[in-house]
Write a structure and sequence with these properties.
The complex is a heterodimer of chains A (about 250) and B (about 220).
Chain A (H helix, E strand, L loop, with lengths): L4 E9 L8 E10 L5 H14 L22 E2 L2 E2 L21 E5 L8 E3 L2 E2 L2 H10 L19 H11 L6 H5 L6 H12 L8 H14 L10 H5 L7 H16 L2
Parallel strand pairs in A: 1-5
Antiparallel strand pairs in A: 1-2, 3-4, 3-5, 6-7
Chain B lengths: L1 H7 L2 H26 L9 H12 L1 H30 L16 H4 L1 H25 L9 H8 L3 H28 L8 H27 L5
Helix pairs in contact in B: 2-4, 2-8, 2-9, 6-8, 8-9
The chains are: A alpha+beta (about 250), B mainly alpha (about 220).
């Protein structure tokens, strides 16, 4: 796949969490505008390997925009310049020939760099483990229609559940806050009848874990919502605030 | 009460404190602006001086004055605490940040705008609160209205006040609707109304405040 884009890449290189990193500059040429951003990095890495250099480490898995693995802070924005896409769904036609592209890892106290552009996002897993679950009886699943759910609740829960846990909200936030993520995970369960048993405990436990992990507070700038590849709404953060404070004032 | 202090010290609790004290200060500004706007009656400050005297003597208002200082102090200290805490959450800064692509500059600059406002409030308190409450300079011949005339004769003071009002406008433009979001009030039915009222409130109240020093300076108020 040959193309005609010649680009200058400034990529953050860092050996591991213990060593300090720095930017390295690379030239790539003949990049096709039909390539995804990750495929462009693949081209660079092939060359680095051929030249005996260490390839750029970056996270990726499904490459179809649904797994949330790819990260990269591209030219000052998580997942690059386009709205509603992950980095694997960002294509090189969004860039111009001769452009310089700066690529950094997600920057947050709670997301330590593992290597180059790969960060450790297991803080998100621990927030989920703190309360993002429901209790169900063993045995056969009951008939789905036996649990009436208002259509708008089902829609809102589904929209919140679209969160893929990529961490773009944290990366975009000036406070490295994980409120959009945590609120989506609280909302998807709080809105459904299956989530009622643990509802109050869930809100308190997940917020406590979020703070414990070292994420910041919310300034309501809306940067997270604007950068979220899945369009998770700020309404979820307002719902989390309601869930949390009603839990604080009513739980025993 | 450990549960309450624990939750008020959580990231959500700090924001709740910010929102409640912020909305309290918003309500104060309505009273402050309404009373001061009586200078525009152009009655030689008669109505304004009556109002000022009522505010100075009424025991309920005097009590609320203490509550107001308490609320302001809480808002400042909580804001400072949030700013310090949030700074620590990103120890390595980005080399390139395109903030304008995803948020308004004033929503990202509430700490800066708040600091400018604090500096303005200190100057403002020195000008009028200190003068009227802590000195004996206030007489029937030299009322608070006369003091306003004297203070706003200086062009430097007028510029400081107008800059203070601009900081106020942007601080409120984000703060007003942000407070409701923090309180959990986000709903398609009323959020557009809150945002609309917030924007109107921020702009109108700041313009009325800014108009006072300008009008005094240009001798439009007698």
């Amino acid at each position: 796949m040959e193309g005609n884009l010649n680009l200058t890449l400034k990529i953050w290189r860092q050996k591991n969490a213990q060593t300090a990193g720095k930017f390295e500059t690379y030239q790539v040429s003949g990049i096709s505008e039909d390539m995804s951003f990750l495929e462009m990095i693949d081209v660079l890495n092939n060359r680095l390997i051929e030249e005996g250099d260490d390839p750029v480490a970056f996270d990726h898995d499904c490459r179809e925009g649904i797994c949330g693995m790819c990260s990269m802070y591209i030219n000052g924005r998580p997942h690059g310049p386009n709205k509603g896409v992950t980095t694997c769904q960002l294509h090189m036609r969004s860039f111009q020939d001769g452009q310089t592209i700066t690529i950094e890892p997600w920057r947050a106290e709670a997301f330590p760099v593992i290597k180059d552009l790969v960060v450790n996002r297991s803080a998100f897993d621990r927030i989920i483990a703190a309360g993002g679950f429901i209790s169900v009886n063993t045995g056969n699943a009951q008939d789905a229609n036996s649990l009436p759910i208002p259509k708008d609740h089902a829609d809102d829960a589904f929209a919140a559940a679209a969160c893929i846990g990529c961490g773009a909200c944290v990366a975009a936030c000036k406070n490295a806050s994980a409120m959009l993520f945590t609120s989506a995970k609280i909302s998807q369960l709080a809105l459904l009848p299956q989530g009622q048993a643990e509802r109050a405990k869930r809100a308190e436990a997940m917020v406590a874990q979020m703070d414990e992990e070292g994420f910041g507070a919310c300034s309501n700038t809306g940067a997270c919502e604007a950068e979220c590849p899945k369009g998770i709404s700020l309404e979820n953060i307002a719902r989390m605030n309601r869930e949390y404070f009603s839990a604080v004032f009513t739980s025993k | 009460m450990a549960w309450l202090s624990k939750s008020l010290n959580s990231s959500l609790g700090k924001k709740l404190l910010m929102a409640i004290t912020g909305l309290f200060l918003v309500s104060f500004l309505v009273v402050h602006c309404g009373l001061n706007a009586t200078v525009f009656f152009n009655d030689g400050g008669e109505t304004f001086n009556k109002g000022a005297e009522f505010m100075a003597k009424n025991p309920f208002i005097r009590t609320m004055e203490i509550v107001l200082f308490g609320g302001l102090l809480l808002h400042i200290l909580d804001g400072l605490r949030l700013w310090i805490d949030n700074k620590k959450k990103r120890p390595v800064a980005y080399a390139v940040v395109d903030g304008a692509a995803n948020s308004k500059w004033y929503s990202r600059s509430m700490g800066l705008l708040g600091t400018l406002l604090l500096l303005f409030i200190i100057i403002h308190l020195k000008h009028f609160w200190y003068f009227s409450r802590l000195t004996d300079n206030l007489t029937e011949e030299h009322t608070l209205f006369h003091e306003m005339q004297a203070i706003f004769a200086s062009p430097v003071v007028v510029v400081i006040y107008v800059l203070g009002c601009i900081s106020l406008a942007y601080h409120l433009l984000h703060g007003f609707q942000s407070a409701f979001q923090t309180l959990g009030w986000n709903h398609p039915k009323y959020t557009p109304t809150i945002k609309c009222i917030g924007a109107a409130y921020s702009i109108i109240i700041s313009i009325i405040f800014a108009a006072m020093p300008i009008a005094f300076h240009l001798n439009l108020i007698h």
